[in-house]
């Protein structure tokens, strides 16, 4: 499964301190306009780990990914990538950091007019001066890793949704990033394709020495591949731990969410007048 990548083709990496987290959010608050979405969030992730970000819709999971890619800056606090605060970076610094991140956002849209091969080659052509022969080797290695070397000449319209997601995955790791951010990578996939995509995220993470953050509503699959799970609700990380720790959590919010119970701290019903009053029946 693991693609062999010759040393000459791999981008230079800073030798990491074994214990230093690759990413860290320190007391981060942020929002859109006047609306505060995250309020004093702390989150750490060590290299080599897969973190699942879960939580209620609109809780701020995607916002965390936007902070890490610096599509959004914090109002206060720090967002550290490999020990470096990314908020003050100039364009060149930001570009260098983003090169070390792969991103697969919802549905991982492919360029419809480009072949599978060219879709994966795209970031390599954009960001490197590699020769055509090297690009070919790298693209085929990445496609091999996702099981689609044989589909290289097909167009996105000629492959299934599950295959397209795997091509998007190959593209996200084309530049050998340190960190890969996945936003709803399983959305719209059938159970078999979903299982394959989830396993691939874990296997690629381990084989290529990546660190991965997966935002997903699919708790079964993400709990199956994650080392750690962080639950975000009401603008805060309300729980973080191993999948087993979250399953065993006594926190009512975590129990409601992980146990998929309709009622708990997050109410199913909007506050309303009594049912009897609306339907004109006596209680
Ligand atoms: N560009 C934006 N401008 C204004 N508000 C936004 C913007 N993006 C997100 N929001 C708001 O911020 C809140 C958090 O959004 P976010 O997308 O981070 O949540 P989420 O946990 O990823 O949700 P979901 O699981 O539904 O994708 C939501 O209330 C959303 O409406």
TrEMBL record:
The keyword ATP-binding applies. Keywords: ATP-binding, Cell membrane, Membrane, Nucleotide-binding, Transport. The keyword Repressor does not apply. CDD domains: ABC_Org_Solvent_Resistant. InterPro entries: AAA+_ATPase, ABC_transporter-like_ATP-bd, ABC_transporter-like_CS, P-loop_NTPase. Residues 23-259 form the ABC transporter domain. One of its GO terms (molecular function) is ATP binding. Pfam families: ABC_tran. SMART domains: AAA. SUPFAM superfamilies: P-loop containing nucleoside triphosphate hydrolases. Gene3D superfamilies: P-loop containing nucleotide triphosphate hydrolases. PANTHER family: INTERMEMBRANE PHOSPHOLIPID TRANSPORT SYSTEM ATP-BINDING PROTEIN MLAF, PROTEIN TRIGALACTOSYLDIACYLGLYCEROL 3, CHLOROPLASTIC. This is ABC transporter ATP-binding protein. It comes from Pelomonas parva. The lineage of its organism: Bacteria, Pseudomonadati, Pseudomonadota, Betaproteobacteria, Burkholderiales.
């Amino acid at each position: 499964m693991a693609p062999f990548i010759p040393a000459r083709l791999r981008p230079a990496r800073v030798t990491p301190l074994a214990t230093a987290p690759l990413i860290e959010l320190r007391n981060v608050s942020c929002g859109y306009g006047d609306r505060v979405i995250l309020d004093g969030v702390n989150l750490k992730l060590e290299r080599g780990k897969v973190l699942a970000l879960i939580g209620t819709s609109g809780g701020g999971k995607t916002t965390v990914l936007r902070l890490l890619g610096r599509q959004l800056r914090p109002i206060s606090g720090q967002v550290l990538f490999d020990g470096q605060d990314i908020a003050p970076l100039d364009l060149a610094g930001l570009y260098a950091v983003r090169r070390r991140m792969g991103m697969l956002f919802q549905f991982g849209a492919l360029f419809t007019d480009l072949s599978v091969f060219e879709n994966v080659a795209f970031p390599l052509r954009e960001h490197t001066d590699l020769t055509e022969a090297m690009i070919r080797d790298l693209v085929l290695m990445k496609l091999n890793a996702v099981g689609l070397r044989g589909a290289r000449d097909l167009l996105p319209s000629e492959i299934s949704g599950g295959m397209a997601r795997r091509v998007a995955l190959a593209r996200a790791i084309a530049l050998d990033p340190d960190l890969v951010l996945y936003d709803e990578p399983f959305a719209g996939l059938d159970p078999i394709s979903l299982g394959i995509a989830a396993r691939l995220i874990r296997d690629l993470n381990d084989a290529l020495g990546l660190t991965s953050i997966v935002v997903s509503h699919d708790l079964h699959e993400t709990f199956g591949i994650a080392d750690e799970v962080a639950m975000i609700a009401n603008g805060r990380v309300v729980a973080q731990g191993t999948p087993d720790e979250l399953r065993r959590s006594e926190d009512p919010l975590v129990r409601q969410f992980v146990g998929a119970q309709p009622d708990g701290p997050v109410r199913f019903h909007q506050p309303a007048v009594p049912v009897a009053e609306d339907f004109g029946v006596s209680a």
